Amino acid sequence: MLRAITMVLMLLLLSDVCKLDSLKADLQQGVIINKVQMKFAPETSAEVGSRITLTCSVNIVGASSLTSQILYLFYKGSDSDVLLNSTVSSQQRSQVTIESARASHTGYYSCVVKVGNEAAKSEVLYLDVAGKLQTPRITIHPLKVIMGNQIELRCEAVEEIPPLEFIFYKYKNGQPSPVGDETVTSRNSVTHTLKVTEATDQAYSCKIQGRSLETSSNCSEIVGITVQDPFSSHAFTIEPKNGIHEGDNLTITCTVRMSSLMTSQMKPQLMILKGVTPMKRNESLEIKYSKVASSKDTGSYSCIAMWNQTSKSIQKQVIVAVPVSKPSLNSTAFNSIVTQGDRLHLTCAVVTGSWPIIYTFYKGTPENSLHRSILNATAGVYTIPSADTADSGEYFCKAENKAGVKHRSERSQNININVKVPVSEPKVNLLTSRTTYEIGKRISIRCHSTNGSSPVTYSLFLNQRFIHSVKNCTTEPVVFNILINNTKDGGVYKCKAENEILNSSKYSEGINFTVMVPVSTPLLFPLLNSTKAHLGENVTLHCTASTGTLPITYTLYRNHSRLTAISATKPGSAVFHVTIKTTEHSGYTCKAENLISSQCSNTIEFFILIPVSTPLLFPLLNSTKAHLGENVTLHCTASTGTLPITYTLYRNHSRLTAISATKPGSAVFHVTIKTTEHSGYTCKAENLISSQCSNTIVFFILSTKSMWLAYYLLPTILFVPT
Q: Is the peptide bond before 42 cis (omega within 30 degrees of 0)?
């Protein structure tokens, strides 16, 4: 801690040593101004007329040779605006005395001291001297001025101390308003230059104001000026005066006289304009513009006099009387067609022609005048508020005026006006009352609008698709004959009626009918295309028509007797299920029918498969006794069974022979008894469905024949129909 304190003391000591070295160097070179101070006596405020002393003191260190030449400068203004006094003295204090203070002494003061090459300024102090400033004096030069020249306004207050603020005022209806911006100057007078125009006010005054808003003067007296127009008179003449016609000599003269304040050497700028186009200009008291008049010379002309940015203007209208040109008649009708009830405008227009122009409208003949108007315009209009068919016809118009001594009349071309009645909503209907039709048939659709000017074009649409149109020049209905080619020809039919009136077409309501397709010949077929069936079996029959409008009713018949019916609402086959209950299952047919036709199918014959019954084996005359070597006859028959039936004869389970029966009846076997062992005869009956074995027949052998017959049994097979 002690070490830190020691270092601080050493630094302070070093700093003082540096300051002494710097002071020593300055003293060797000249002087040092330590302080400059400004004081008032009395301090800060005083009364008008009082004595005020301004004291500037200074503290100087330096060579005595320089201190004897101290320059004191006293200033007024926060920025040293005005130098009040300068004094050279050897004393370190200097004074300036204001013997009789004025309100303009109010303000900021300071003093500056200069010694050799050194200078220093005191603080700025404010001195307030209570009281009014001197009323200033205003002078204006010149008091009589020509419009366009300048005047000089001078305001001065010789007794006041600057800086001062000067304000000029202008007066209108006795009320002052400032002229330009406020002017602050370091002098006790100011000059303001003002250009005199037609709007310049003619009375002025001024006032002054110190830096304090409370320090101001009264307004000076009001001085007025006299402003004169540079032009004492201004004339604009156009000849001839009593109407100008094509071919006349047109002369336009612009004349001006100058004010008495103007010298004879002062010449104005004169200019003759048509619209905004200069026709002639010159520095003179009079100019003329002459030419041969034509219709193009009609227009607004101006005579303008200008001097020193002051101008005067006179305007006149020149109308060159021109005979009317051939008028053109136009109408608001489109292609000469007007809709009944619409407003019709007829416009009669001319390209050239002096006003006023008389426009007259006619229908048919010159004796039939409709409307007459006198207008200062290049077109006249005749309006029919609500056009009717009686307004149809030929129209023309006439335009006339007075050009020169001759009365001029011209007639327009003729135009035709056709007032058309819009078509009413057409009615559409079928000449027959049916709602369904077959392919290949013709239908007739009638369309008619009860109102509408001829010709009327009728167009037929199917489902918004154009079909055909007919132009009808009578009031009778039109009939469309349509050939139905396919189902797409059915749907909603509408009729459109239109005549020559633009955008006036009308559509009828729609009529709808359906195109029906007759059923084709149906096909009847069994499932798997098999016509063989067992007794008691359930068989499936399909019946289908390839074409035909739904719904289609399928009816199944057997031998012309109705069995059942199915209504199909979707494309496909009708499926019938039949149980085979008897052997008489032949002659199945199917009928397909819709709303417009019916067709019968092919015939299906079923082959009924019946199993064979148990056959009966019996000998002729029902005798089972036989002699050795005797020929015996055996009958084998099955009471039922689908033919063909094969009958096979067995003896003791050994097959002897077989007979195929294709007709109903018994199979007859002829057997020769060759041995005594002729027992155990059986018969088997079989067809494509089943097989059955008969009873067993045993023969009783009565005697023995020759031995060689025992080894040879020659059976003879005979088939005996029953």
A: yes
350 with 375: CB under 8 angstroms?
no
Question: What percent of the chain shows pLDDT beyond 90?
Answer: 36
**Nearest CA to 651 among 629, 672, 630?**
672
Q: Which two tokens stand for residue 684?
A: 């088997």
Q: Give the Cα separation of 155 and 140 in Å (integer).
A: 9
CATH 2.60.40.10-classified regions of the chain: 26-130, 137-228, 231-321, 328-420, 427-516, 523-609, 616-718
pLDDT at 10 over 90: no
- The CATH class for the domain spanning 137-228 reads mainly beta
| 8 A C-beta contact, residue 230 and residue 259 | yes
User: Which single residue is written with the structure tokens 């300048």?
Assistant: 150
pLDDT at 66: 61
Name the token pair of 337.
């067609």
Q: What's this model's pTM, rounded to 2 decimal places?
A: 0.43
CATH of 26-130 given 3.40.50.880, 2.60.40.10, 3.30.70.260, 3.30.540.10: 2.60.40.10
**Distance between CA atoms of residues 194 and 207, nearest Å:** 17
CATH 3.30.1330.30 fits 328-420, yes or no: no
Half-sphere exposure of 58 (CA within 13 A, CB side): 33
Tokens of 304: 């303008």
Q: What is the torsion angle, in degrees rounded to the nearest 10, for the CA atoms of residue 471, residue 473, residue 474 and residue 478?
A: -10
Give CA–CA dist 154/168, Å, rounded.
9
Residue 435 identity (one-letter amino acid): T
Tell me, what's the pLDDT at 621? Answer: 78
Q: What is the chain's alpha carbon radius of gyration, rounded to the nearest angstrom?
A: 72
Q: What is the pLDDT of residues 116-136, one digit of tens each?
A: 888 999 998 888 888 778 889
Count other C-beta atoms under 10 Å from residue 128's C-beta. 15
Residue 258, both tokens: 């100058």
pLDDT the model gives residue 360: 96
379-425 tens-digit pLDDT? 999 999 999 999 999 999 999 987 755 567 889 999 999 999 999 99
Question: What is the amino acid identity at position 239?
Answer: E
Classify residue 470 as left (phi > 0), alpha (psi -120 to 50) or beta.
beta
Q: Note the pLDDT of residue 64.
A: 62
d(CA 684, CA 643): 15
Residue-averaged pLDDT of the chain? 84
> What token pair was written down for 95?
């004074």
Does residue 644 have a cis bond before it (omega within 30 degrees)? yes
